[in-house]
Amino acid sequence: MPLDTDEAPVTDAGAPLTDMPAAATIGQMLRARRKEIGKTMKQVAREAGLTEGFISQIERGISTPSLISLYNVANALGTSVDTFLSQPPQHAHSMVSHAGERRGYNVETKERVYELLERGFPGAQLNGCITHMPVGYASELTSHEGEDFLYLIEGEMLYEIDGKEYVLKAGDTLHFPSSLPHRARNIGAGPARELWVGTTRIIAE
């Protein structure tokens, strides 16, 4: 059930959280959808740019995918990320986004929060998200269409892009083709916040 906005925990930026299903529930939903359309884990893994082992771990509730990996898997299954949100975003297409008024979403853990930034107008090409990553956070290796631009708001992160490592501190940026295999890890002593802007439409119009 979605959390009531008035009582929901908030991020450091003041964004109320909306629960996404727990890892096991997401895994059950993904497995049911995969069987419904008759695909194997190997097929889904190949189309999602992930390993078959990781797809198996997601389905068994052992591993939790990042938002972009969930997007890739949803695409491979012919559905959308919205399917796994307790309360899908309302598309107001507001040109202005105020801190403290944005809703935050999470996948299983309350510590990893995604503030999905509303697209300013219908048909917009750019998409944005502020990701809150706890100490020790490490994403899986993934790739997808489009391009990614990252601005590290807070903390210290290690990004691996096509086998090369880049250490970013607050104020640093990174811009690369999303088709290159990439992953990220919080190597700092505290939580990190990252602004992502990209052409990948994670949430449907």
UniProtKB/TrEMBL annotation:
Gene Ontology CC, one term: cytosol
Keywords: DNA-binding
Keyword RNA-binding tagged: no
Gene3D superfamilies: Jelly Rolls, lambda repressor-like DNA-binding domains
CDD domains: cupin_XRE_C, HTH_XRE
GO molecular function, one term: DNA binding
Domain of life of the native organism: Bacteria
Domain HTH cro/C1-type residues, every copy: 30-84
One Pfam family per UniProt: Cupin_2
PANTHER family with a match to the protein in the record: HTH-TYPE TRANSCRIPTIONAL REGULATOR, TRANSCRIPTIONAL REGULATOR
Name of the molecule in the record: Cupin domain-containing protein
Natural source organism: Ensifer oleiphilus
